[in-house]
Specification:
Keywords: ATP-binding, Ligase, Nucleotide-binding. GO terms for molecular function: ATP binding; ligase activity. InterPro entries: ATP-dep_AA_Ligase (IPR052032). It is a single chain. The chain has 147 residues and is of the alpha+beta class. It folds into 2 domains: 68 residues, no CATH class; 50 residues, no CATH class. The protein has 6 helices and 3 strands. It has a 3-stranded antiparallel β-sheet with strand order 1-3-2, with helices on one face. α2 crosses α3. The radius of gyration is 19 Å and the shape is elongated. The chain starts with 10 loop residues before the first helix and ends in a 7-residue tail after the last strand.
Length: 147
């Protein structure tokens, strides 16, 4: 289990976060939450970047949880597809490209246009979301053109 709660947040959220105590552990955060004296029935994530933290907190609080072991597969489309494939289920063909700028996106478009049959569809999507994971693009064979 990851010790620092801060590292559960995406880099974009860490940069913008008002909470700068990166050394605080999930256990110490749980202690602070419990110190308020309320019975805790669960935790709800407020936005996608907090999923990993919410999963770890729910485990530590002993409330209903999705569990932190599957956090990456629930958040990251590439990991999700590979997890499905490893489970023996049908999964889309996919390729992960990291740190694309405009030049790389144009190269990706050329690659798709030159190597992929016109009858095969392709989708280009961020792996998590454009705000929290800029630079990670996933090619999924599902739509006929790159926009």
């Amino acid at each position: 289990r990851l010790q620092g709660w801060f590292e559960h947040l995406s880099p974009a959220v860490r940069r913008s976060s008002a909470f700068r105590d990166a050394g605080m552990t999930v256990d110490s955060l749980v202690s602070i939450v419990r110190s308020f004296g309320f019975a805790i029935a669960g935790d709800l994530v407020g936005a996608e970047p907090g999923v990993r933290l919410a999963d770890s907190l729910s485990e530590a609080l002993g409330v209903r949880t999705n569990g932190s072991a599957g956090s990456a597969a629930r958040r990251n489309k590439f990991v999700m597809g590979e997890t499905i494939r490893k489970a023996g289920l049908r999964a889309v063909k996919q390729t992960l490209k990291v740190t694309p700028g405009l030049r790389e996106i144009k190269a990706m478009q050329s690659y798709v246009e030159s190597r992929v049959e016109s009858t095969v569809a392709v989708v280009v999507t961020p792996t998590i979301d454009a705000f929290t994971s800029p630079g990670c693009i996933l090619l999924v064979h599902a739509d006929s053109r790159v926009l």
